[in-house]
Amino acid sequence: MNQTATSALGSLLERDPANPKLVGEVADDLFRDASYREAAELLCSVPAEIRSLPEIRVRVARSALARGRFHEAISEYEALRSEGVQASWLEHDRAHALFCIRDSDAAMKLVSEALERFGESTDLLVLKARIHMATDELEKAIACVEAALTRDPGNPTTLGVKSIAMLDSNRLADARADAVAALSRDANQHEALVTVATIFRWEGELESAERLHERILRRYPASGRTLFGSGEIALARADFARAEELLSAAARIMPRHVGTLHALAWAQLLQGNLDAAELSYRRAREAERNFGDSHGGLALVATLRGDEEQAEQHLSIALRLDPTAITAMLAKALLESARGDTGRAERMFAAILAKAGIPGGPSLKLIAQRLSSAYASRRKD
C-alpha cells in the first residue's frame, strides 16, 4: 500500500477509531513499511474494547516481536493460545520469539510440533531452516528451504534465507543467484541484502558494502550480521574504537557467534586492552570448545602479557586442534622472536601475511603488523 492509501486509511481511522478492521489494516501497512514503533503506538491508542480483541492482540504481539521485545511477545502469544486461539501462524510466531531469545531447542520443538499438527507451511519450514543455521546444521537448513520452495517457488524470504545458507556453505555463486532472485521480488528482503553486502566485503568492495550496510541498518537496526560486517570494515580501516563499538553491538545480538567474538577481540587487542580481549576469547571458547583460534587467542594475550608459560599451555591446545590457527601462529611467531629466533619468526609472519588473499585478509595483514610492533614495544619496555 502506498503512502497516499495509508494516509487515507489513517483519516478514516481518525473518524472511526473503534473499527477493528481499519485498525488492523493500518497496523499491517505500517508493518510492511517497517514502521514498527508507529504501529505499536497506534495499537496502544485504540479503545480498550478494541485493544482486547484477538485480531488486535495478535498485531500487538507482532509489533513487540518486530521491535525486539521478545518476552512481551511470548507472553501475549501464550495468553492467546491459552484462550483457545489455535493456528499455524501463532505457533510460528511463538517459536520465532523463542528463537530470538536464543532458546533454539524450545523453538525447534514448537516448530516440529506445529508441522506435525498443522502440516507443512512455508513459514514454518523457513523458520526451521533458520534454527538449523543457528546450530550450524547447514545441510538440514538447505533441505528445509528446498522443501519450502517446492511449495512456493518465488517466495523472497525463502530465497533470502537460502542465500545465507549457501553463503555459509561457501557456495558463493549459488548465494549470489538466490539473493538476486529474492531482491527481484522484494527489494528490502533482509537476508538477501546481507548476502550481497557480505559478498561485496569479501571481494574487497568495501564502499559498496558500507552503503548497503547503512541501508540495511536503517530498516533492520538489530541485524547482527550487518553490524558484524560493519565492524570488520572498521577494523580493516584501523578505526579500532568504532570497530569495537559495532562488534560489541553485534555480540549482544549474536552472543555465541564465534566470528564476531574473534573480530571484537582483535579490535580490543589493537587498542591495547588485553583484559577485554581475553574475555572475548573466553566467550568464543565457551561457544565452541574445539575451535583452535579461540585457544590461540588466549595464547596471544598471554604472550603479549609476557606470560610465556601460560602462552605455551594455550598454544599446545590450539595447535593440537588446528595447526593452521592464525592466532596460534601469531603467538608462536612472537614467542620465537622473544627467544631470539628472528629468522623463524619472520618466516612465520610471512606465512601469516600471505593469507591476506582470503576473506578478511586485509584486516589480518594489519593485525599481524600491529601486533608485531606492539610486542616489540613491550619487549623494549
UniProtKB/TrEMBL annotation:
<keyword id="KW-0677">Repeat</keyword>
<dbReference type="Pfam" id="PF14559">
    <property type="entry name" value="TPR_19"/>
</dbReference>
<dbReference type="InterPro" id="IPR011990">
    <property type="entry name" value="TPR-like_helical_dom_sf"/>
</dbReference>
<dbReference type="InterPro" id="IPR019734">
    <property type="entry name" value="TPR_rpt"/>
</dbReference>
<dbReference type="Pfam" id="PF13432">
    <property type="entry name" value="TPR_16"/>
</dbReference>
<keyword id="KW-0802">TPR repeat</keyword>
<protein>
    <submittedName>
        <fullName>Tetratricopeptide repeat protein</fullName>
    </submittedName>
</protein>
